[in-house]
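Quick question: what would this complex look like in 3D?
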Amino acid sequence: MAAALPVLLRAARLQRSVSRSSNRPLVRAALASCQGAARTRSLAAGVSVSPAASASCVAQRRCCATEAFRPACTDLTEDEEMLRDSAAKFAQEVLLPRVLEMDKAGAMHKEVVAALFEQGLMGIEVPEEYGGSGLGFTAACLAVEEVAKIDPAVAVLMDIQNTLLVTAFNRYGSPEQKQKYLTRLAKDTVCSFCLSEPGAGSDAFALRTRAVKDGDDWVIDGGKSWISNSVEAGLFLVFATVDPTKGHKGITAFIVGRENPGLKIGKKEDKLGIRASSTCELVFDGCRVSGDCVLGEVGLGYKMAISLLNEGRIGIGAQMVGLAQGSFDYALRYMVTRKQFGTAVSDFQGMQFQYARAAMEIEAARVLVYNAARLKESGKPYITEAAMAKLKASEVAQSVSSQCIDWLGGVGFTKEFLAEKYYRDSKIGTIYEGTSNIQLLTIAKSIQQAYKA
Ligand SMILES: Cc1cc2nc3c(=O)[nH]c(=O)nc-3n(C[C@H](O)[C@H](O)[C@H](O)COP(=O)(O)OP(=O)(O)OC[C@H]3O[C@@H](n4cnc5c(N)ncnc54)[C@H](O)[C@@H]3O)c2cc1C
């Protein structure tokens, strides 16, 4: 397999810093030549150029340059391209040979999880000082997309780790918690995000799991449902209320280790799709954790969960774009070789119109996802865009993967081919991290605010 991502990134950054310093004189020369040209133009017009005017001209040009050449959201940085390519290579080499077997068994191979860590794909936004790749949110989404092209079940494991848990520890962790947990998240420990309960799904903050203070410790009792990655996880971020009378202001996030005797991993769900991704119930029975296991502050859990899910759903959008593209690539490769009436089925105009439209839909979803990711990364408002991105991408994933089965004909309906797996996997996109109705509510709320203001 290729060299691990952190190694590649370090080498590329070193190379760039060398070439940047050797390029500096060229930049200065270009600016000087622009200043010279301005002087020549002014002299020709019979005006003298003061140093101040010349400096302001340079400043303006710099400003114009950044305004005029603002890159498209699909333009990637060198680091992002490198990450995307190494995630794609990983998916081809490690996941493709195992995808059908893992789906059939409903379990993820241990070596797949180990390889995700080895390749630096589990701590993409973990700062380098804690052993991570030190990249941004868009980069994490790109990696999720590439992995989802081959296996959306593996993609959700790394998506939750990167876009929910790493973000949670990066943003809300104390320096000691970052040192203790981010290093593990980047190196070898899967973490689960535990919010949903049997009675608290879309209305997640109706949760009833309770945490009671006992000296310096907290004791957690209750249960969670639908918790992804709980078979593989070594850590669980658990949302519980410290005071039900306070409503959402009582909700607090606790870090619970798998070895805690008060935590039991319950029933594993037998699912329609993303079968290799584990989804289990959790039972907390006198689960005692120390005071330093509160992430953020007591009572901050609601705010944290809302904010994490708002950005996490961009990652699910990326998963769905990858799924749609993966099923499309899979079907097209078949269609160009499958002959009927003496010609490749991809040559029939009836088919061309369908796959041209599907390609356009995938690109539309991708642009929504990348745009939301870039907005989030640059600190601009992104909540509506994130909801739109997830909603659109999950709808596109369902419609494209459904059409791909049609395009393959009979073989698309069999379990020997991946097309039916993509279709089954696509169904989850409209459910987790906020159902489609919840995304529509978010979008409608922002529209109402704009028109009522
Ligand atoms: C495979 C899988 C993995 C998951 N992983 C995790 C995880 O790791 N961590 C975690 O905490 N949770 C996880 N979940 C839970 C997931 O987030 C919830 O299933 C989801 O939020 C929906 O909740 P629910 O299933 O209770 O559906 P409900 O909330 O009961 O919704 C049922 C239907 O009612 C609609 N509905 C509900 N409220 C409204 C409303 N106000 N307006 C209009 N329509 C509405 C919904 O859109 C839906 O169609 C996972 C779920 C699945 C299936």
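Answer marked as accepted. The CA atoms of residues 134 and 182 lie 12 Å apart.
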